[in-house]
Design a protein that fits this description.
Length: about 100
């Protein structure tokens, strides 16, 4: 695989070009671009804050949700932090389904 910005060869598993730092990972339809912290439209329970953090950092969504609940129960600031993150983190843009998938119309 080659970088589209500088043209140097990049490993197939690399997300960024080691020479110029450009994103070289293939874009998956419906998935947020690496490097962007957004609240995805699916999977989310309330506002998508835990899902966004989990997808951004590559963590398990259930673990992030459990940690957030523990912050609410023991720290008391979890609810305020969640509301602030809900306001600050932008929502992921709408995406169209891939062509060729559908009911055959």
């Amino acid at each position: 695989m080659y970088c589209s910005h500088c043209g140097r060869q990049v490993e197939a598993a690399a997300r960024f070009c080691p020479a110029c730092g450009a994103v070289v990972a293939p874009v998956v339809v419906g998935a947020p671009i690496f490097g962007q912290l957004v609240r995805p439209r699916t999977p989310r329970v309330f506002g998508g804050v835990c899902s966004g953090l989990a997808l951004h950092y590559g963590w398990d969504i259930t673990t992030v949700r459990l940690l957030w609940v523990l912050c609410v129960l023991f720290g008391g600031t979890g609810i305020l932090a969640y509301i602030i993150a809900w306001i600050v983190i932008p929502e992921a843009p709408y995406t169209l389904p891939e062509r060729g998938t559908g009911s055959g119309v």
